[in-house]
Structure to design on (185 residues):
């Protein structure tokens, strides 16, 4: 529907990020066609902006990790529920737990239900990301900078133990680069 609407409004065929799109990134992923457009865009922008190896952590509906090795190849990643999805699932499943603002509490041990939920959801996400980064770095066998993008990237990067750098425009820059790589001349 979006392709049809875009074509009708602009008179041009839109670029759909998917199989067959030039990325400039060597893929060592079993089926690159399975990758979502956001993951591809993150990889393309990060490959242009950062020296390999690196790890991108994209905070959205899902929390995605994209891992690029020392040779600059995409070797795989991780997909987990995002922090907002986790908070919504908690609130939906437990009758007495309402949605809370997703910010780090003053203390990990909450003094009320709101703080306890913030600690569990926000600090739990920080601990999960840090723990997964430990495992990924051990598997890579080398140090790699961590780039965080997506919702609240600045706040989340500041909470991580891994000295992560926030890059709010990574995905959009990747989409622009994909357009440049695939533009019909």
């Amino acid at each position: 529907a979006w392709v049809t609407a875009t074509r009708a409004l602009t008179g041009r065929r839109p670029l759909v990020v998917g199989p067959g799109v030039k990325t400039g990134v060597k893929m060592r992923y079993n089926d690159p066609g399975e990758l979502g457009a956001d993951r591809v865009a993150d990889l393309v922008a990060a490959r242009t902006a950062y020296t390999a190896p690196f790890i991108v952590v994209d905070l959205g509906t899902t929390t995605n990790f994209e891992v690029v090795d020392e040779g600059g190849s995409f070797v795989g990643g991780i997909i987990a529920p995002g922090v907002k999805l986790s908070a919504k699932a908690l609130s939906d499943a437990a009758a007495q737990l309402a949605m809370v603002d997703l910010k780090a509490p003053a203390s990990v041990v909450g003094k009320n239900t709101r703080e306890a939920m913030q600690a569990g959801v926000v600090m739990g996400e920080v601990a999960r990301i840090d723990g997964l980064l430990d495992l990924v770095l051990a598997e890579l066998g080398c140090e790699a900078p961590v780039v965080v993008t997506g919702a609240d990237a600045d706040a989340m990067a500041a909470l991580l133990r891994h000295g992560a750098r926030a890059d709010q425009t990574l995905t959009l820059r990747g989409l622009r680069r994909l357009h440049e790589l695939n533009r019909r001349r």
